[in-house]
Prior knowledge:
The chain folds into four domains: 4-134, Response regulator (Rossmann fold); 144-307, P-loop containing nucleotide triphosphate hydrolases (Rossmann fold), CATH 3.40.50.300; 310-399, Helicase, Ruva Protein, domain 3, CATH 1.10.8; 403-449, Arc Repressor Mutant, subunit A. The chain has helices spanning 12-24, 35-44, 63-73, 88-96, 109-139, 147-159, 176-185, 207-212, 225-228, 244-256, 282-287, 293-299, 316-331, 344-347, 353-367, 373-401, 405-423, 428-435, 439-449, and strands spanning 4-8, 28-32, 49-53, 79-83, 101-104, 166-169, 194-198, 214-215, 221-222, 233-237, 258-259, 268-269, 273-278, 302-305. Helix 16 (373-401) runs antiparallel to helix 17 (405-423) and helix 17 (405-423) packs across helix 18 (428-435). The strands form four sheets. The chain has a five-stranded parallel beta sheet, with helices on both faces. A five-stranded parallel beta sheet has the order 7-10-13-6-14. Strands 8-9 form a two-stranded antiparallel ribbon. It is of the alpha/beta class. The protein is 52% helix and 12% strand. Helix 4 links the parallel strand 4 and strand 5 (101-104).
Amino acid sequence: MLKEILVIDDNPDIRFLICNILEEQNFKVRSAANYDQAVIEINKRLPDLAIIDIKLDKPDKDGIDLLKLISKKNKITPVIMISGHATVQIAIESIRLGAYEFIEKPFSKEKILNYVNRGLESASLKKEKNMIEKNLFHSFELIGKSPAILKVKKIIDKLSTSESRVLISGPTGSGKELVARKIHKNSARSKEPFIIINAALLKEKTYERELFGEEFEDGNISFGALERANRGTLLIDEVSEIPYETQANVLRVLIDQKFKRINGSKDINVNIRLVSSTSKDLNQLVNEKNFREDLYHRLNVMPIELVSLTSRTEDIPLLIEYFKTKLSEINGVQKPDIDIQNDSLYTYNWPGNVRELRNLVERITILSSNDSKQKINKVIDDVLNTSSKFEHNKNILEQSFQSPLKEAREHFEKEYLTTQLKKHHGNISKTADFIGMERSALHRKLKSLGIKGIN
Length: 455
C-alpha cells in the first residue's frame, strides 16, 4: 500500500515542489495551503507522515500547533518541520514537542527524501514494536497451580456472566493488568474497547482531562478514557493515586453513568464496566482519610487478591517453562535450558514478582539461549545476587532514614566495615590500609560495633 504524505505550506511554489518530489517517488500526497485547510485534512485522516511549514497564514496559529494536534491523535506519526527563518529555539522546541526532524529552507531533493524515508521507517519500527508487545501481553495466560492462582481463575470464570465492578489488589508485577484483561476477554464486552489509565503516571493537574476529555475553542476535542472505553471496559490502574478531589467526580460518573468534558456543556452518557487495581491497601487509606469511603465501596464490589511470587514458589517452574516457550517463539531463537532446580530461584525475594521473573527469562532467552545449563545457572545467580544486594542496600538506606543520626551512622559503619572485611577475605591489615585506618583503631571499632571474624 502506498504511503500517504500530507504537505502543509502556505507558499505555493514550495508546496508544489515538495509534492512533485514525493509523487515522483510513488508516494500518495495530500496538501494544505493554510492553517484551516491543514486542520480539516488532519481531522479527516491522519497521514503516514506530515511535512509542515512552521510559519503559516494565521498570526496566532502556526505549524507548531499542527504538530501538537497530530501528536495528540497519534504520537507515532512522524512530522518533519520546515522553515526558512526559524530560530534555533524554535527548532529545539519542535523536536521537544515530538517532531521527527527539522529542516531549514532551502533544502535539496535528496535531503527531503532521506528524512521522509527515515521517518517512515522509524514509524514502521515503532508500530511493529507496539504490535509485538501488544500481542505478547494479550497472549499471556494466568499460569500456576497454587491455591492462590486457582482461586483467582475460578473468580474470573464466575465473572464472565457478570457486569460487577472489580477491585484487583496485589504487589507490583503480580499480574493485575493481566487479570483485568482476562476479565474483559471473558465478558460480553470482549469485542468492545479495553482502555487503561494508569493513575500513578499522571500529573496531578491532568487526571480530570485524561478521564473526562476536553473541548477546545477551535472546536477540537480530546476524548478522555471514559469516553474511549464506552461500551467496553476501563481499567484504572493504581486507583489509589487519584487525587481526593477528583475521586468525587469519579463517584458521580459511577452513579449517573454520565459526565461533562472539561469546558464542555452537554452530558456525555457512557456505559462502561470499571475494573480498578491497586498495590496499596485501600481500606487503610480510607481509615487514614486519604481515599473516599463511598468510592471504595463502589469499586470493591468483587475483590480479587493476587499474592507475591514468594508466596507461590510452586508456580515458578511452570512460569519459567511458559515464558521461555513464548519468548523463544517471539524472538525466533531456541528455548534456553534453564535449570528449574536452581536454589536461587526459590530463595530470592522477587520484589518485582512475576514481571521480574519474566524479564529474567527474556534476558536469558535473547542473550544466552545457546549456552549450557551451567552457564545459564551462573547468569541467574549473578543477576539475582546483584538484585539482592541492591534490595538489601535500599532497605539499609530506608532503615537509616528512620533512625536517629547516631544509630544510623553506626548502622552504616557496620555494613561498610563488614563488606570491606569480606572483600579483603577477613584480613585486618589489608582492610585497614584500604579504608585509611590504623590497624589498632580498626580493631577497636570492630569490637565496639560487635563485628566478629569474617569467614
